[in-house]
Amino acid sequence: MMSSEEELTSSTPSLPPPSAHFVGRKEDLVQAKRVTRLVGGRDVLVLCHKGQFHAMDMRCYHSGGPLQEGDIEEFDGRICIVCPWHKYKITLAEGKGLYQAVNPSATPPKPTWRSKGVKQRVHKVTEVNKNVYVTINDSLDPIDSDFYQTERYRTTMNKAQPKNKK
After folding, report:
1. Are 139 and 162 in contact (CB under 8 A)?
2. CA angle 32, 38, 42 (to 5 degrees)
3. Per the CB 3.0–4.6 Å rule, which of 8, 54, 64, 146 could disulfide with 59?
4. How is 25-65 classified by DSSP, letter by letter?
5. CATH code at 65?
6. Residue 101: how many CA atoms within 13 Å on its side-chain side?
């Protein structure tokens, strides 16, 4: 038997959650496939893959690579975005970093996919009345991608950008 809270979350909501931020119309986001937005002070990538929306910090946890330019691929049954800079694989659903490991004592050695744990902060996406909203994951547990959301990083990044000459 479902609790009343489960019934509310399993039915289609008519109002977005109170802490949700509007990121676009469903039709526009489906067509764009990927957009970046400043949401609640965070740089967020919102993407639509096979009809499902996902949201995560837009810079890769490893070195700040632009995930909006990454390919979507499947590894061991898990859908990932692949950072274009260093090919780090991040699951869309949980933000886990994946890598291949080999047991050297196995004969023959066979690579298997392993998780490094959650490395990329993922955010909740809600669709209400053909509009898409993101609720920021404000868990206090630190996640590696948090570094690229700091004012210190943004200041450093802006100083490193070449100035446009007129």
Report:
1. no
2. 125
3. 64
4. EHHHHHHHSEEEEEETTEEEEEEEETTEEEEEESB-TTT--
5. 2.102.10.10
6. 8
Helix or strand run (H / E) with residue 6: helix 4-10
Alpha-carbon gap, residue 49 to 142, rounded angstroms: 27
pLDDT, tens only, 29-47: 999 999 999 999 999 999 9
- 51-97 pLDDT, tens digit each: 999 999 999 999 999 999 999 999 999 999 999 999 999 999 999 99
Written as six digits, the tokens of 166 are 């007129």
Helix (H, G, I), strand (E, B) or coil at 127: strand
Q: How many CB atoms lie within 10 A of CB 35?
A: 18
* Contact between residue 132 and residue 23 where contact means Cβ atoms under 8 Å apart: yes
Q: How much is the pTM?
A: 0.84
Domain count, the chain: 1
In a domain, 107, yes or no: yes
Strand partners, 124: 135
User: What residues make up the domain containing 55?
Assistant: 13-149
> Would the pLDDT of 154 be above 70?
yes
Sign of CA dihedral 140, 145, 149, 151: positive
